[in-house]
Amino acid sequence: MNEMILIVEDEAATAEILADYLRLESYTTHLMADGLPVVNWVREHKPALILLDLMLPGKSGLDICKEIRSFSSVPIIMTTARIEEIDRLLGLELGADDYICKPYSPREVVARVKTVLRRVGNVSAPLEAGLQLDESCYRATLNGHDLQLTAAEFRLLNYLSAHPGRVYNRQQLLNNIYTDERALNDRAIDNYIKNLRKKISALGYAEELIHSVYGVGYKYEGARLTG
What we know:
Strand 3, helix 3 (61-69) and strand 4 (76-80) form a beta-alpha-beta unit. Helix 1 (12-24) packs across helix 5, helix 6 (151-162) packs across helix 7 and helix 6 packs across helix 8 (188-202). The strands form 3 sheets. Strands 2-1-3-4-5 form a 5-stranded parallel β-sheet. A 4-stranded antiparallel β-sheet has the order 6-7-8-9, with helices on one face. Strands 10-11 form a two-stranded antiparallel sheet. It is an alpha/beta fold. It is 38% helix and 19% strand. The longest helix is centred in the middle third of the chain and has 16 residues, at 106-121. It has helices spanning 12-24, 38-45, 61-69, 86-91, 106-121, 151-162, 170-177, 188-202, and strands at 4-8, 28-32, 49-53, 76-80, 98-101, 127-128, 131-134, 139-142, 145-146, 210-213, 217-220. The chain has 2 domains: 4-120, Rossmann fold; 124-220, Arc Repressor Mutant, subunit A. The chain is built from 8 helices and 11 strands.
């Protein structure tokens, strides 16, 4: 396996325990306790996944997540003891792919890591309306321009574009993005859609690819490339 997991956690004992459990599953780990150098380290080393604590010295996990999302779609699992931040994390305005509340079991963390990495490796790649989804690097391009999607946005766009014209309600979309039966507010889908539309529009793409169906949900419409 030998995939690199970056653990950003200022509680040394907690970080070491997580690292030990991940190494037992044949992951490579790197530990960082200060938030300031994290972004540059990620740029240079390109980990397979980041376990990112919310509260860090130097720079908060929220700010780190936002900065990383400006150049990378690497999966990020946030860890937090601050319950009041959960709604923000679930809204994925920050680009986090998952979250875990403290205190947690190291086995739960390992299970979440495996689940997120499995999603990354098993996403199909339809080619439609100039849209290309590359599962090998979780990269979405539109007419050759990188959309800079988070993993969750990637999964949503992939699912909708694989079924053009079909209308899905929010809960159906959540069920296909997350398969681990977590309790999520289905309005999180609205945030995903908002972010996708914003990123598509930022590339100067005039055609609306994701359509709202009043009182029902969303659908994707676009010409399918052949070949």
